[in-house]
Amino acid sequence: MASSADKCPVDHSAVASSSKPEKCPVDHGSLPSNPAQNADACPVDHGARSSWTNIFGSKGSPHPHTQSNLPTERETSSIPRVDGTNWVYPSESQFFAAMARKNHNPQASDMKVIVPIHNAVNERAWAEVMKWEAGQGGDKCGGVKLVSFKGRPGDRSPKARWKTLLGYTAPFDRHDWVIERCGVRMRYVIDFYTGRSQGPTNGPSFYLDARPALDNWEGVRMRACRLWDTWVGSLWNSSSPPTSKQGSS
């Protein structure tokens, strides 16, 4: 008979379904004037992308500030929207233009490096969110969807501030993503860190710290269960006697 020591201490049946927030989760001040421009938007706030050029851009002399020869092809992400489509990443030309409008001094030659990294990082971010969402019931109603997003590179999360005080490198960017799971909306905080250099030929490395925000009961429940599984579950498994093999010669 299995012991209850490795069982999550939270009573999942007692969790009430969260209602949709009264406030619209989208930052209207950052929306384009033409609604059609937002229909296939990328899940990134491009107004805050100077942090990406600082990390992944060229360190040499400036190149001409032009987007006339940059590709306009766009890549569709694996991240679903609530309308049944998927979010679409910006082209190199759009990425350059978005940064230029914010006076971030982009270099056209950097776009072929930054845009693929940008896309890969966001795919990684969604994969981290889906790890948290596994087993939460989103598959019963068509899967988890990304509702809205906001870049907050200047706002360090409490966890990021604490890690910085302990001597860790500060994150170079932060996103807040709002997802919907069967009518329940959840905010995730994602801190982006640069990893250790793998050498000049391997390109930049990075790692992400994604977790539910602690601004509602559902986020607290999920974080508590993860903590229980990580610490108490591992201690219980390590203290259990090994199972003897049957029929060994």
Name the beta content range: 15-25%
Helix content: 25-40%
Residue windows where pLDDT falls under 50 for at least 5 positions: 14-39
Give the SSE string. HEEHHEHEEEH
Largest beta sheet, briefly?
Answer: 4 strands, antiparallel
Q: How many discrete domains?
A: 1
GO molecular function, one term: holocytochrome-c synthase activity
Catalytic activity: holo-[cytochrome c] = apo-[cytochrome c] + heme b
Function: Lyase that catalyzes the covalent linking of the heme group to the cytochrome C apoprotein to produce the mature functional cytochrome.
Subcellular location: Mitochondrion inner membrane
List keywords for this structure.
globular, 17% strand, two-stranded antiparallel sheet, 249 residues, 6 strands, single chain
What secondary-structure arrangement, pairings included, does this model have?
Blueprint (H helix, E strand, L loop, with lengths): L49 H7 L19 E5 L5 E3 L3 H10 L9 H23 L11 E7 L6 H8 L7 E9 L2 E11 L11 E7 L4 H23 L10
